[in-house]
Design a protein that fits this description.
The complex is a heterodimer of chains A (148) and B (497). Chain A has 148 residues and is mainly α. Chain A has helices spanning 2-29, 42-64, 74-94, 96-108, 116-137. Chain A is built from five helices and no strands. Chain A is flat and about 60 Å long. Chain A starts with a helix and ends in an 11-residue tail after the last helix. Chain B has one domain (2-496). In chain B, helix 4 runs antiparallel to helix 6 (106-139). Chain B has 497 residues and is mostly helical. The chains are: A mainly alpha (148), B mainly alpha (497).
Chain lengths: 148, 497
């Protein structure tokens, strides 16, 4: 019960933490300037302060009324996340097209009812599509396949 | 006479083969992406934004605008056929469009949508032609204090309409503003909040934020349960033309819808969704045919469609004349302009008339294309809806990755996009909306600039924002809006949604 209540507030706490990060780093590392000539830290400090105050208000409101939140779909999150990560990792190593191929393989595994053969075909088709549209069509300066 | 000369200039810009081609491409791609449920105009514009970097500014804007209203139109198709709104603003169209489709009149509903959208859009364009120059002239009187206050009003309005309460909307606006301060401060040259990461010196790219918050997080939300295709029911397209009586009954509602839409489109923060809801609610109250609303009344399709397309056009008025976007999608358009080195604002019309009037005239062409495109292509869109979602979402992910990578050939940007994707996903789970964040992100740096300038001019007196009448009025309206939003009784509106 307590754990459930706590996870329900995590989002707000995270926002509060972000606000505090901006406030503290504005105070510590940046010049606030004078009222007439505001420094680089002044505006972020104000907005960060407002955000911190608002998140505390909402936090207090939430303590009274139970706040509903939806549980994350970890499988989808992991697979889509790894699809994007695969592209980011592999593009500098292998080139854009292999990265696209593997990215599709990863992100399509969020759905388990699909066969591997279909997945491979889809990955190949998307890679060809990217090659035709972005490299041949739009002439974008990508390395298609590294070492080719 | 002035208007005619301006329109002639617009025609000469918009009617070049290249601009016509990109206008067509934009409208087509926009409709294509908009038809897919869950992927709205914002994601569509974000995905095609990197492509536009390679084009001259007029062409880029013409194409992106085409994508935007094309996607709006595409959203209505999914609403009518599947009862799944492709875009939030199309959700009203579900109310009568889907019953029509169930009665075997999908063809009629889609045809009427095309016509009503075209009519609404043209109405919006006329309003834009008449209103923009006057508004821009008025805005030239604005000083930094007024600009700051207009932005406050825009941001408050954007938070007030968010679904989970004004307070949460404002929090997201603040978060967006803070994220917008990351990078080098233009006034002092100091680096802010980069944590020593060199890639962050120029700040986070707008496309990265938009693709992450809207693209990736939407895909995560909809990726599962995606083996089914959406369209399973038989859709009959045998009959396209409404009956004569229906034509007649639709004329007055089309005008009312377009008027309501044009009005709400120009207000910052409200946009098409509110326009179509208000239009529908109004029509339901005054129509003689009101008993049939919700059961497939043709007016129930005409009104929201003419309203949301009129609003889609008039939303460009504040964006282009004041430099203040009313919605997240408009914020993205504004970002696109700035990437091309054009500062939107009251001077845009006089300094870049070919851009402004060319864009307006391209709306005319774009909507004509939509009309011509969609009547024969309805069958194609239906087929697209029958493709299992499974094939589409990995392709969307790749499109996002390639799009982000093409901005700078930077892998770092892709990681940041992923970060924003996760942020956007968890925000949704915790009932925070990404749209106000994006508006804050775009407006933040401008707001800071005007705030600092106003303080400099007033010699450090913060009361300047209340002493200048224009600024005070704008802030007053913002406060009233906020109080209204916090009052109970807003539940009624949410029930309608």
């Amino acid at each position: 019960m307590l754990k459930q209540r706590l996870t329900g507030q995590l989002g707000l706490l995270a926002i509060l933490a972000i606000a505090l990060f901006f406030i503290v780093s504005a105070l510590v590392t940046l010049d606030l300037g004078t009222a007439r000539r505001l420094g680089p830290g002044a505006f972020p400090l104000m907005v960060g302060g407002l955000l911190a105050v608002l998140s505390m208000i909402v936090l207090i409101q939430n303590l009274r009324t139970e706040m509903s939140w939806s549980a994350p779909d970890w499988t989808a999150l992991l697979m889509i996340g790894s699809g994007v990560a695969a592209f980011a990792f592999l593009t500098p190593v292998l080139g854009v097209l292999p990265a696209v191929f593997l990215s599709v393989l990863f992100s399509s595994s969020a759905n388990r009812e699909v066969t591997w053969l279909l997945r491979l075909c889809l990955a190949f088709a998307v890679a060809v599509g990217v090659w035709v549209i972005f490299l041949l069509g739009l002439q974008m300066p990508f390395v298609a396949i590294r070492g080719l | 006479m002035d208007i005619l000369a301006n329109l002639a200039l617009g025609f000469s810009t918009a009617a070049t083969p290249m601009n016509l081609m990109y206008c067509f491409a934009g409208v087509f791609l926009g409709t294509f992406i908009g038809v897919l449920p869950g992927v709205g105009p914002l994601a569509a514009v974000a995905m095609l934004l990197p492509v536009s970097f390679y084009l001259p500014p007029e062409t880029a804007l013409v194409m992106l605008a085409g994508v935007y209203y094309g996607a709006e139109y595409g959203g209505s198709i999914a609403s009518i056929l599947l009862n799944i709104p492709g875009t939030p603003s199309a959700s009203v169209t579900c109310l009568d469009g889907y019953p029509m489709a169930q009665q075997g009149r999908a063809g009629v509903a889609l045809f009427v949508t095309a016509i009503a959208s075209f009519f609404g859009a043209m109405f919006g364009v006329v309003v834009m032609v008449l209103l923009s120059p006057a508004l821009a002239e008025f805005a030239l009187l604005f000083g930094p204090a007024e600009y700051f206050s207009v932005m406050v009003l825009g941001l408050v309005a954007a938070s007030v309409v968010s679904n989970h309460g004004a307070l949460r909307g404002i929090m997201m606006v603040c978060l967006g503003i803070l994220l917008g301060t990351v990078g080098v401060d233009v006034n002092s040259g100091e680096t802010r909040f980069t944590g020593g990461i060199a890639e962050l010196r120029d700040g986070v790219n707008l496309v990265v934020v938009a693709m992450g918050l809207f693209g990736i997080s939407e895909v995560i939300t909809s990726a599962r349960g995606a083996t089914r295709s959406y369209a399973t029911a038989k859709i009959s397209l045998k009959q396209f033309l409404p009956t004569g009586a229906e034509w007649l009954r639709s004329i007055a509602p089309a005008f009312r819808g377009a008027s309501v839409g044009s009005f709400f489109g120009t207000l910052p923060g409200t946009g098409q969704t509110v326009a179509s809801f208000v239009g529908y609610a109004l029509e339901k109250r005054i129509s003689r045919n009101r008993d049939n609303f919700g059961k497939g009344a043709i007016e129930g399709v005409v009104v929201p469609e003419s309203a949301n397309n009129a609003a889609a056009q008039t939303a460009f008025i504040p964006t282009l004349t004041l430099g203040i976007p009313g919605s997240a999608t408009m914020a993205l358009m504004l970002g696109a302009l700035m990437i091309h080195g054009i500062t939107p604002g009251p001077r845009l019309i006089t300094e870049r008339p070919e851009l402004f009037w060319g864009l307006i005239v391209s709306f005319l062409f774009g909507n004509l294309f939509l009309l011509i495109l969609n009547i024969p292509l309805i069958g194609l869109w239906v087929k697209l809806l029958q493709v299992p979602h499974f094939y589409l979402y990995p392709a969307v992910i790749v499109l996002i990755c390639v799009g982000v990578y093409s901005i700078d050939n930077s892998v770092f940007d892709i990681w940041v996009t992923l970060g924003f994707g996760l942020l956007g996903y968890f925000m949704r789970l915790y009932k925070f909306e990404p749209a106000p964040l994006l508006i804050g992100f775009v407006l933040g740096p401008m707001m800071e600039e005007f705030f600092r300038r106003a303080m400099l001019l007033s010699r450090g007196d913060p009361l300047v924002f209340l002493e200048r009448p224009g600024s005070a009025a704008l802030l007053g309206v913002s406060v009233i809006l906020l109080i209204w939003a916090m009052l109970p009784g807003r539940a009624r509106k949410q029930k309608l949604a």
